[in-house]
Amino acid sequence: MASSLKIQVTVVYSPAPRVVHEMTLQLKPVSTVLQALQGSGFLQQFPLIDVLTTEVGIWGRQASLNQTLRDHDRVEIYRALTVDPKVARRERFTRQGARTTGLFMKKRAGAKAGY
Question: Is residue 8 domain-resident?
Answer without folding.
Answer: yes
